[in-house]
């Protein structure tokens, strides 16, 4: 009996250690450090919200050279003034619509070689697909997904041919709605889920050039855009989205840079996002053998938790539908 207990205890100890040792051998890409000080950080959607918070933080806390791109020159000038007043650093500004590849390419070429590209622009028009005009659907996909292709394609040649051979980063701003579909987010989720496929394949294509891709998953964030969007949300969207609280733009910016600097592929911004990242890890790259261990051991449990969330959401939908028939 004592031998059996000893063997059981040994198994409990040795199996996790053996799994950790195996994961340390197979996780790819390898861990990396991406320095930001005195390097060029280029941020799209940089005139407000998360983008502006990222620009402030890149300049003040990270000591980077900052460029921001957005559609409105007036808003860009306001953003540049706020960065100057807060940090004493002069950000470069570029007015371009990310849907226009030629305009984006012109801005990127003028900005010079980019070390950290943060593709942050985003549009969200909430609504059930049945009630949504296809022009709104197309607008979200064009800005959120095709706009990201335009920005990355414009920046890649310079990033690949850089003279500074230290590692560099491309960060794509997805959303927790890019981890799980939510009522009223049909078009938005499609555009943000698309970024994951883009990011996974792109990482394969650029890893040999020491370019590291990050996919960021902010929840609702306290920005002017959220205030406007909340007025238009279907009631069920607000009920379901209430399970994940809103964050401040500065908090999201800090989480972004924490993930970018160590080359994390998934960059969740709160507890719910971290749980979703484990539950949806799939075939995503993973640099950390410890996080790979967490994913392997907890994925089944996270699936159970996810089913409870789905039970709650579908219950809310059924209750709402029965009241409004």
TrEMBL record:
The keyword Ligase does not apply. The keyword Membrane applies. GO terms for molecular function: 3-dehydrosphinganine reductase activity; nucleotide binding. The chain crosses the membrane at residues 290-309. Keywords: Endoplasmic reticulum, Lipid metabolism, Membrane, NADP, Nucleotide-binding, Oxidoreductase, Sphingolipid metabolism, Transmembrane, Transmembrane helix. GO terms for biological process: 3-keto-sphinganine metabolic process; sphingolipid biosynthetic process. Pathway: Sphingolipid metabolism; Lipid metabolism; sphingolipid metabolism. It catalyses: sphinganine + NADP(+) = 3-oxosphinganine + NADPH + H(+). InterPro entries: KDSR-like, NAD(P)-bd_dom_sf, Sc_DH/Rdtase_CS, SDR_fam. Its main location: endoplasmic reticulum. Pfam families: adh_short (PF00106). Its EC number is 1.1.1.102. It is found in: Endoplasmic reticulum. One of its GO terms (cellular component) is endoplasmic reticulum membrane. Belongs to the short-chain dehydrogenases/reductases (SDR) family. This is 3-dehydrosphinganine reductase. It comes from Linum trigynum.
């Amino acid at each position: 009996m004592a031998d059996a207990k000893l063997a059981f205890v040994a198994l409990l100890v040795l199996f996790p250690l053996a799994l950790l040792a195996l994961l340390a051998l197979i996780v790819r890409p390898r861990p990396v450090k991406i320095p930001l000080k005195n390097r060029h950080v280029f941020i799209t959607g940089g005139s407000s919200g998360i983008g502006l918070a990222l620009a402030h933080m890149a300049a003040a806390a990270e000591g980077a050279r900052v460029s921001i791109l957005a559609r409105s020159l007036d808003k860009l000038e306001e953003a540049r003034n706020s960065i100057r007043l807060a940090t004493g650093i002069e950000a470069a500004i570029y007015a371009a619509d990310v849907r226009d590849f030629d305009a984006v390419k012109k801005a990127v070429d003028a900005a010079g070689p980019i070390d950290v590209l943060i593709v942050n622009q985003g549009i969200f028009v909430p609504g059930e697909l049945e009630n949504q005009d296809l022009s709104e659907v197309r607008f979200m996909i064009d800005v959120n997904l095709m706009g990201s292709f335009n920005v990355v394609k414009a920046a890649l040649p310079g990033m690949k041919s850089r003279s500074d051979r230290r590692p560099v980063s491309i960060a794509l701003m997805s959303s927790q709605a890019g981890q799980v579909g939510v009522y009223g987010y049909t078009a938005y989720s499609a555009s943000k889920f698309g970024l994951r496929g883009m990011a996974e394949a792109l990482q394969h294509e650029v890893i040999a050039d020491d370019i590291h891709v990050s996919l960021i998953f902010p929840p609702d964030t306290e920005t002017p855009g959220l205030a406007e969007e909340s007025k238009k949300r279907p009631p069920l969207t607000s009920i379901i989205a209430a399970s994940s609280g809103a964050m401040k733009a500065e908090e999201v910016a800090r989480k972004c840079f924490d993930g970018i600097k160590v080359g994390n592929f998934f960059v969740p911004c709160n507890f719910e996002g971290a749980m979703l990242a484990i539950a949806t890890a799939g075939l995503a790259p993973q640099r950390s053998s410890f996080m790979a261990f967490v994913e392997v051991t907890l994925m089944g449990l996270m699936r159970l938790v996810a089913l409870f969330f789905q039970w709650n959401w579908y219950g809310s939908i059924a209750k709402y539908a029965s009241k409004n028939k």
